[in-house]
Fold this protein.
Amino acid sequence: MHVPDGFIDAPVSAATGLVAAGAIAVSLRGARRELDERTAPLAGLVAAFIFAVQMLNFPVAAGTSGHLLGGALAAILVGPCTGVLCVSVVLLMQGILFADGGLTALGVNITDMAITTTVVAYAVFRGLVKILPRTRRSITAASFTAALLSVPAAALVFTLLYALGGTTDVSIGKVATAMIGVHVLIGVGEAAITALTVGAVIAVRPDLVYGARGLEQRLKLRVNGELVDATPELEPVRASHRKVWITGLVASLLLAGFVSFYASSNPDGLEKVAADQGIDRAAKEHASADSPLADYGVRDVEDARLSGGLAGVIGVGVTVVAGTGVFWAVRRRRSTSQAA
């Protein structure tokens, strides 16, 4: 759903830029409360994982594909404020290095793909968690539903922005119907990826999942007919924080460097709707179109598989470094404030 330059006019693009800047400022403050010494590195990894999975377009309908947006996944794993920052880092890397999503449309993309998906998903998630039993299965089910609803919500927000500042004369009703319809289908894929990922992390380290905090209970043993807390040495062995981080990074590199070659080549939901409705007539060439990594390929590498794989690996590496740097800085700022 990356909006290119030219789809939305300058006044609305500028307004969404201000909205995005304000939301990022608020999120930076909120992330100080969400991040600690364990979750700061995880947040950088979440950004890199979202970048990798966004390269994996999956087919959803005839001639149309979809990909992860990531707001729900980030919000549930590392918190809503940190989640906004995670997806914003991904969008910034994609726009600057890979010419994916316009630079003048960066505010539109952050408002739509980072803020909307994160806020909607986390609101739905928290509402469900309050009424469902406090179990791992409930957390996974709430993650699925939250992610599912966040995608058509983003499609609706794009439609509203296009109604305010669209640069072509098209029927907004038709755009809304097409956008929401196809993104409901894409939402199913988003929900499956989100639920599987959240479930996998909960299975090994539930304490690292922001949305599952308070889920863990001490292991109980029955002794002489009474339940008592197990001693620490009898608690199940957890995967180390470092092992989880390394496993996640390796998975991201494999997805971006190898699996992405087999992703669907069909246009994603926004691209298909834009072509069908004539919106793409106003698209402008990306300011980074001459980037050596434009269109997720390495310039002068003729082998398509190698070119795409290298670009994916570079993207994961740059994103994890940039994201980790941002979140460590936020964490250090919190530590400094507390010490003062």
User: Anything to note?
Assistant: Residues 217-221, 230-235 have pLDDT under 50 and may be disordered. The two ends are 43 Å apart (CA to CA).
